[in-house]
Input
Amino acid sequence: MQRLGIGEPVSENRASSAPAGDHVDTAPIVQIRSGGSAEPGDGGRAEERSRPGARGADDEAKGRVSGRADDDRVGWRGVWRAARARRKALRAEVRRFTVRARRRRLAWLIGIGSVLLLVVGSVGAAYSPLFAVEEISIEGAEQLDAAAVESALADQLGKPLPLVDASAVKAALVAFPLIETYTLEAHPPHDLVIRVVERTPVGVVESEAGFTTVDAAGVVLATAGERPAGLPLIQVEGGTGADAFRAVGQVLRSLPEDLRARVTGAGATSPEDVTLTLGDGGPQVIWGSVDDTSEKVSTLQGALKGALAEGATVYDVSAPGTIIVR
Output
């Protein structure tokens, strides 16, 4: 080995004679990254990025962020599921506690629907030709000509029972004075029944037209040239519209059948002095007013059955509970 003096230049021979292993290149080593070239000034950072530890730290940081996001997503999903489960449980609990009410409500709805269906069906059927009037019957007629009444109501034939014209029926029955009251009865599917209550004739009134049969209200029932048998002759001042006539009619109507059959005449000048005649030329009964009729009837019947009836011409029962026989 040769020693060099200070400041002595190194010759080429010396340099070339030095071993190859002693030659050191002091230029920085640059690492070439795949996919690009490295710059000389970026050597430190490139080396730092190329270290496995740095890359792992980045991945770990990203993993923590991603983990937190996943945790947040899982947390919100759990809250939503819990809320949905709670709502579902609440609805189930409400249904459990309201099952009876809902069943009752359903039963009511079914019942109301059935009733409505039945009503609608019944009304529809009732107003259809299935329930048209085919026969009219008159019940309660004794003196009344039932065939004549049925003929007067013939215009109601063919009508559905609910559509029978009550006003038209009334107008037809007014023509029959013997009818005092009446009722209409529909007997499905095809029968219309009319129940009549006839007026009760209580006597006859003599006039220029003949003998007129009247009821207790003075309604004219019939007129004939001869006096009808079995009815008393009524003689009242003021005619059938007077108060005295109404009093006579009320007394005659209240008499029992056996006693009324014995009366041949009746009269009054006022409502307070009604008189009756028993038999042809028989005794006279001073009745008085229409008050206490039942008691007067009982008193008179007792007198007619007793010994007082022999030779009596007057029975005065105007004072209730007492009788004067003359």
Observations:
- The chain has a mean pLDDT of 79.
